[in-house]
Specification:
- There is one protein chain.
- This protein has helices at about 5-25, 35-70.
- By secondary structure, it is mainly α.
- It has one domain (about 1-70).
- Helix 1 runs antiparallel to helix 2.
- The longest helix is centred in the middle third of the chain and has 38 residues, at about 35-70.
- Mean pLDDT is about 75; it is low at about 75-80.
């Protein structure tokens, strides 16, 4: 499930978009001076998208999170859960 986490997807998208922007900025005189502004704008857009995705996941998102926690701790099968 790690490969499908929202955070992993977000990082992958940000890297790809910034790579494309860097490619364009190298062809614009003094383009690199705008890199940080683009990075911030993309980060803000990704924050909005991530919040929307989490909001739409609703109960399913909570269930998936719990399943991820269960499977992530499967190596501790002999230990009872600490509550």
């Amino acid at each position: 499930m790690q490969g499908f986490s929202l955070e992993h997807i977000r990082q992958t998208v940000e890297e790809k978009v910034m790579g494309a922007i860097d490619g364009v900025l190298t062809h614009i005189p003094n383009g690199q001076q705008y890199r940080e502004q683009f990075r911030q704008a993309i980060g803000n857009a990704m924050n909005d998208l991530q919040q929307q995705a989490q909001g739409q996941a609703g109960p399913l998102g909570g269930i998936m999170s719990k399943l991820g926690g269960i499977f992530g701790h499967s190596h501790e099968q002999g230990n009872p859960p600490a509550h």
